[in-house]
Amino acid sequence: MKLGVEAALVDGLLVAGDVEVKDGRVVAVAVSSPGGRGIAVPGFVDLQVNGFGGVDFLDADVAGYRRAGEALLETGVTAYLPTLITSPEQQLLAAMREVPVGEARPRILGMHLEGPFLSPNRLGTHEASSRRDPDAALLERLLDAGPVRLMTLAPELAGAEQLIDRLLERGVAVSLGHSDATAAQANAAFDRGARSVTHLFNAMRPFLHRDPGIIGAALARDDVVVSVIVDGIHLAPETVLVAARAARGRLALVTDAITGAGVADGSYSLGNLDVHVSEGTVRGPDGVLAGSVLTMIEAVRNLHDLGVPIEDALEAATSTPARVLGDPELGRLDIGAPADIVVLNDRIEIERVFVGGEVRVAV
Ligand code: ZN
């Protein structure tokens, strides 16, 4: 099957011509395409989704995952990590038992546990009563409860090194976040194998000239991916551009979306917290930002609107987040790769979404 597009983003470069798909995989690019329309790009990979389409992943069953998945597909996401914020252990364990594995569309790559081993000083909206200092036995219980793929932790906590080692041993990627770490503490964790920072700038020690913290450490290295929430609310435009320039090729867009994303303004839950969505902003009862109602396609457009080339903005939604998970098949469009593809029009709007070569959204 040919997609009928005029070009494709192949390993970060726009290549003229159509894309041919067979048995769920891309078999040819740059195929002659008279009358082709739109651009084929890899499906989006979102590392941080708390909920979507009216569904909260802390309290979702299989039907809920299906509903959220349909809504995510509409926004171009073909693979994601359902994300659980700091919550009571029993609630986390119960939520992880509900995660569908295998044939879900979009693909569920595993869970992102954001917490509970976070800094008490940088919790944001995370529930303080459920925060924990590093606890090896608790980590094992969490890892045994479901398919954990990524964990966000604060590396400066006593015992965090052992957690990092154990997570890597079990094939779980480590991201630093909700943290008060100094640059030295962050660098030690990166040297140990942590490979990303969760929502850079938000909920961490601020960057100061003599105390650059995690932010300075991550931006100064070339082997760390930094995720950002580009919704026009979490970060000032200049802040996004600083990250985009310093971390070119290492910037990952995440939505940090909550239940209300893809639905309407109103009141929703984020774990055990009641949050209110109004004009694109999500706040908890104390007025603190509590996730977003951002979608990946909006994040791509927002980043591009700030002056970032479209190829770079798309890379930030596809191959770069995929790199955090170390899956070479994910987030790319090339011969042999799974045909997880979004077709965009020239206004960067979604026209079609394919997962494994199967059309799932057609506008
Ligand atoms: Zn967070």
Description:
The protein has ten helices and 23 strands. The relative contact order is 0.17. 26% of the residues lie in helices and 28% in strands. The mean pLDDT is 95. Strand 22 and strand 23 form a beta hairpin. The strands form five sheets. Strands 6, 9, 10, 11, 12, 13, 14, 15 and 16 form a nine-stranded parallel sheet that branches. It is α/β, with parallel strands linked by helices. Helix 2 runs parallel beside helix 3 and helix 5 crosses helix 6. It is globular and about 60 Å long. It folds into two domains: 72 residues, Roll (Urease, subunit C, domain 1); 287 residues, Metal-dependent hydrolases (TIM Barrel), CATH 3.20.20.140. The longest helix has 13 residues. It starts with 6 loop residues before the first strand and ends with a strand. Zinc ion (ZN) binds next to loops.
What is this structure, in a nutshell?
The protein is of the alpha/beta class and 363 residues long. It is built from 10 helices and 23 strands.
Q: In the CATH hierarchy, what is the superfamily of the largest domain? A: Metal-dependent hydrolases
**Helix share, percent:** 25-40%
User: Low-confidence spans: pLDDT under 50, at least 5 residues?
Assistant: none
Count helical runs: 10
**What does the largest sheet look like?**
9 strands, parallel
Reading off the top of the CATH hierarchy, the class of the largest domain is best stated as Alpha Beta
Return the CATH architecture of the largest domain: Alpha-Beta Barrel
Taken as a percent bin, the fraction of beta residues is 25-35%
Estimate nothing, just give the exact number of structural domains. 2
First-to-last CA distance? 19 Å
Here the CATH topology of the largest domain equals: TIM Barrel
